[in-house]
Design goal:
Layout lengths: L4 E5 H20 L2 H10 L4 H11 L11 E8 L7 E7 L1
Antiparallel strand pairs: 1-3, 2-3
């Protein structure tokens, strides 16, 4: 799988993780209702929802959770010196 990762603040990464985990769990169900729910959670972005449902979610079919990893990086060099992190798929 291509490395899908986002470099952001630690607080935003921790806030994003549960939303991603829930969407992948719904995408694994494979029902029409779950597909529509994922599309609505992605604000109608059908191409991105299709990629999540058709390519990303099947790779985690056997897992019951823990699809993402948060790696702490340290303080931001410029600006407000907030703690930085990388959130990525395992």
């Amino acid at each position: 799988m291509g490395e899908i990762r986002i470099r952001t603040s630690e607080a935003k990464a921790k806030e994003l993780r549960p939303a991603i985990e829930k969407m992948i769990t719904k995408a694994n169900l494979g029902t029409l209702a779950s597909r529509r729910l994922v599309i609505s959670r992605l604000y109608g972005l059908t191409a991105e929802a299709s990629k999540l449902i058709d390519t990303i979610a099947p790779k985690y079919k056997g897992r019951t959770g823990g699809y993402t990893r948060i790696t702490k990086l340290g303080a931001r060099a410029s600006g407000d010196a907030s703690k930085m992190a990388v959130i990525e798929f395992i």
